[in-house]
What we know:
The chain is α/β, with parallel strands linked by helices.
Amino acid sequence: MTPQATGASLMDPGRPLILVTGATGYIGGRLVPRLLAAGHRVRCMARNPDRLAGRSWPGAEAVKGDVSDPASLAVALEGVSQAYYLVHAMSEDRPDFRDRDLGHALVFAAACAKAGVQRIIYLGGLGDPARQRSEHLASRQEVGAALGSTGVPVLEFRAAVIVGSGSASFEMLRHLTERLPIMITPRWVNTRCQPIGVRNVLGYLTEALEHPEVSGIFEIGGRDILDYRRMMLGYAEARGLRRLIIPMRVPLPILSALWVDLVTPIPLELVKPLIEGMTTEVVVRDPRALEVFRVRPMAYKEALALALERLDEDAVETTWATSLSREQEEQVLGSHEGMFLERHHRHVKAPPHVVFDTFCALGGENGWPAGNWLWQIRGLLDRAFRGMGMRRGRRHPRQLRVGDPVDFWRVEALEEDRLLRLRSEMKLDGHAWLQFTVRPEGAGSRLEQLAFFEPHGVLGLIYWYSMLPFHLFVFPGMIRALKRRAEAAVTESRPGA
């Protein structure tokens, strides 16, 4: 099997081939375009290469591969000079994650040795092994050692909190600071940390290819050493917020994790290892990276300003959520922007244009296919709070264009035979969207339905959780009804039907 290119190759075929594992992840998704811009030949490996569709990465190859599967790795590593290992199981809330991470690293190391790979480049975690209290940070360092177990040289960068729009640890601190004027926090807020800007991390990873002879462990960090309390207060200052943080003893770490899971969009399976890691001091003890590489770390305030600028411009490249597997995505309610989400998928035995026409006919006199009475009650509540309610209906019973009202929604985006996104104009403590996407799948289509909600403060959180019982009925029922309607439309259009 030969890996297929996602676009015409623009790179010199004589240049060494670079493999990036975890190309759908937070760091991998940002690294690939930078490697391409530097003129490198890049192959991206993902368990589901379809998730790379739509990326503006001309010249990159996409190949299906799994770090636990030697056969797929043999294909992905064919002809590869150097390989980035950017895969880990931090988001998998399983008791055997440490063994799984170690096993995957050993399989990958053996495959690299067999394929003749010259070097593995790995991004791990900071922390003094002698004082390690975090199982996840210990696992990251074990993975680095396992990657070098078969004799292939390894260049391992170890970093602490990565400050960048979409980074899980940064988003957790950001949302805690945004939403809580007064925080009674566990004592881990006093733990020292050396945060590093995501641009600096990408700078180290990209420049690594200019030093093919360099291997070993390099600790990387930003210019400042802070505790997490000062990081949150620094964020508050940058946003013009006044915040009071009161550290105290919390008897069970899981209580902190549950609270963060409630207040922020980061799901519990990510929150638990993040908080566990925050109990361990993570600072650079060996500054050799500054001697070998040209990267000059930025101050925390500078990295913070760049992250906020990206958020304000809606120019976030990747998020922590991009690294989740398809199965995990189905289970997670949340996204980096502070949005909760509910996603549903269905295979529909109808072509995309029929499915598209079906969901474009929602609302107005056509009504809503599941719990229409609940939609009407919600409209009445909206009117009671001086909102528009459901009275606007829609301009045309079947046709839509951007800007059209659909009851208390407005069409925000419309792509023929592919996508419809509705923005809520209800009175509520937050912003809400409802999006439908359809794409070809086999002899039919794959329909995806997404409900987004960005809460504003505690009232927004209360609203979202109070609506969840109704969501269990409304949203699954809606996508089932859309599937039935689209398939019925196909049956009715057949000759003799």
